[in-house]
Design goal:
431 residues; 13 helices; 17% strand; 4-stranded mixed sheet; alpha/beta; 16 strands
C-alpha cells in the first residue's frame, strides 16, 4: 500500500486545530494517529501502515471491524428507517432486542430501558433506584454506595459513584452528590471472600441503610478504575446484605457484558441476580452507541403505579432502530458460535504471551481473566513516549496509569495475538 504522508500531516494539522480528544488537552500533547479504515482486527493508518487492535475500540468491537453480518444488519435497517422517536411509538428492532436481553439475563430482570451511552445507562439506574424508593414511601433513601477503585462513567450522577480519590473526577468533588464508598474486595478471583471483607460495608449499612437507595458495583472486574479482578463470593455476600438491609443492588456490566470475562455476563461467576443491570459498549459489537438498563418487575411496577405515574427519563435517541438492529445481529452472531471456546483460547494465549513480563523488575503484577490481559507496573507510564512505541511495533495498545492492558476482539487469531502480547512485553521491558 502506498504511503500518503501528506494525508497524515493534513489530518493531524486540522485535528490539532479543531478537535478535542477524550481525557486530553487541546491541542493534544501527545501524537494523534490518523485512521482511515478498519477491517477484521486491523486499523489502517493514513500513511498505509496497519495496526493490530488490542483495545477493540475501548472494549466494544468484539467481532472486529467491517463484519459482513453487522454491515448487512445496518444496511437492511437503513432501508426501513434510521430513527424514530420512542415516545408513544415502538418498532420491531427495539421489541426483539428487549426480548433477547431479557432471555439472556437473570430471570428476575424483565424490563428494559434503552439509552444512548454507558454513562447515561448508569444515570438511569441511579434515578430508577431513587424514584423506586420515593414511590415506596421511603423518601430518605437517596444515597448510593460504591466501591473504591470503581468507575461508572463521566456524567454527573455516574461521576458521583466513581472513586473520588483515585478516579478521574476529583476536580468536580465539590459539586457532585456525596455518596458512600467502601474498600474494594481484596480477595482474588479464585479465592473465597472472608467475612472480614464485609465488615466495613455491613457497618455502613447498619448505620445508614435508611438513607441508602442502592449499591452499585462492577461485578468481578473493576475496569477503568484499575483492572482489578476480585472474588465472585463477594457478590454473593453483597446480595445477602442488600436483602437484609432493604437496599437495591445495581451491577454495572457495561465493560464486562457479552462474554468478556468468559461468561456471557460477569454476574454468572457468582450466580447472583441484581435488581438492576447496566449494559453497553459491546452491545452493538462496537458499531454505534447504545445502552440498556434492565430492572425487575417490582421496581418497574412500583414506579409506574406511583403518584408520578412514569419514570422520569427519556433520551432523544432512545431505542434507535439502527442501533437496536445492529445489537440484535451482534448478539445473535455471538451466541451462534462456540464463543466460550474462543474466550478460553484467548485467555490461555494471553496468559502464555504475557507471562514473560512477570520477570521484569518494573512489573508489579500480570493477570488475565477471559479476554482481558493486564500488565501492572510499579510506576505510571509516560503516554507520550509509550504510545508511539506500540505503533512502531504495529499494534494499538492504549495504556493508562500503571496499566498496560489488552481487551482484544474475540475474532483475533493466534498469530495476531502472539504479535500483540510480544509487543506489550517488549515495550514494557524497554521502559
Amino acid at each position: 500500500m502506498t504511503n500518503d504522508n501528506s494525508l497524515w500531516r493534513d489530518l493531524q494539522e486540522r485535528d490539532s486545530e479543531h478537535v478535542w480528544h477524550p481525557y486530553s488537552a487541546t491541542p493534544s500533547r501527545g501524537e494523534i494517529f490518523p485512521i482511515v479504515a478498519a477491517d477484521g482486527v486491523r486499523l489502517r493508518l493514513a500513511d498505509g501502515r496497519e495496526l493490530i487492535d488490542g483495545m477493540a475500540s475501548w472494549w466494544c468491537a468484539i467481532h472486529g471491524y467491517n463484519h459482513p453480518v453487522l454491515n448487512r444488519a445496518v444496511n437492511e435497517q437503513l432501508t426501513k428507517m434510521s430513527h424514530v422517536m420512542f415516545g408513544g411509538l415502538t418498532h420491531p428492532a427495539a421489541v426483539k432486542l428487549a426480548q433477547l436481553l431479557v432471555r439472556l439475563t437473570p430471570d428476575s430482570l424483565s424490563k428494559v430501558f434503552f439509552s444512548d451511552s454507558g454513562s447515561v445507562c448508569v444515570e438511569v439506574a441511579l434515578k430508577m433506584a431513587i424514584q423506586f424508593w420515593q414511590a415506596s414511601g421511603k423518601q430518605r433513601k437517596q444515597k448510593m454506595v460504591a466501591l473504591r477503585s470503581g468507575y461508572h462513567g463521566d456524567t454527573f450522577g455516574a461521576m458521583s459513584v466513581c472513586d473520588p480519590v483515585t478516579g478521574m473526577h476529583h476536580l468536580f468533588g465539590d459539586v457532585l452528590n456525596k455518596q458512600h464508598f467502601v474498600a474494594a474486595p481484596k480477595a482474588g478471583f479464585h479465592e473465597e471472600c472472608p467475612e472480614t471483607e464485609m465488615e466495613e460495608i455491613t457497618d455502613l449499612l447498619t448505620s445508614h441503610h435508611e438513607e441508602i437507595a442502592a449499591i452499585i458495583v462492577e461485578p468481578v472486574v473493576q475496569g477503568a478504575g484499575g483492572m482489578h479482578f476480585y472474588s465472585p463470593d463477594y457478590l454473593r455476600k453483597l446480595r445477602a446484605l442488600c436483602d437484609a438491609f432493604d437496599v437495591l443492588l445495581i451491577f454495572d456490566e457495561i465493560a464486562t457484558g457479552f462474554g468478556r470475562t468468559g461468561k456471557m455476563f460477569a454476574l454468572e461467576h457468582a450466580d447472583v441476580e441484581p435488581d438492576m443491570l447496566c449494559l453497553g459498549k459491546s452491545l452493538t459489537g462496537g458499531y454505534m452507541t447504545l445502552a440498556a438498563t434492565l430492572c425487575n418487575d417490582q421496581i418497574a411496577s412500583t414506579i409506574s403505579n406511583s403518584e408520578a405515574g412514569a419514570f422520569m427519563h427519556g433520551p432523544t435517541f432512545m431505542g434507535n432502530p439502527l442501533a437496536c438492529a445492529t445489537a440484535i445481529a451482534s448478539i445473535e452472531l455471538l451466541i451462534s458460535q462456540p464463543w466460550q471456546r474462543k474466550i478460553q483460547r484467548l485467555n490461555l494465549q494471553l496468559e502464555e504471551g504475557l507471562s514473560p513480563a512477570r520477570k521484569l523488575p518494573q512489573v508489579n503484577d500480570v493477570r488475565t481473566l477471559g479476554a482481558i490481559g493486564v500488565i501492572e507496573l510499579h510506576e505510571a507510564v509516560d503516554m507520550q513516549r509509550v504510545q508511539p512505541m506500540f505503533v512502531d511495533k504495529g499494534v494499538w495498545i492504549r495504556p493508562f496509569g500503571k496499566l498496560v492492558y489488552t481487551m482484544p476482539p474475540y475474532t483475533m487469531n493466534e498469530e495476531d495475538l502472539a504479535a500483540l502480547t510480544a509487543a506489550m512485553v517488549e515495550v514494557v521491558a524497554a521502559l
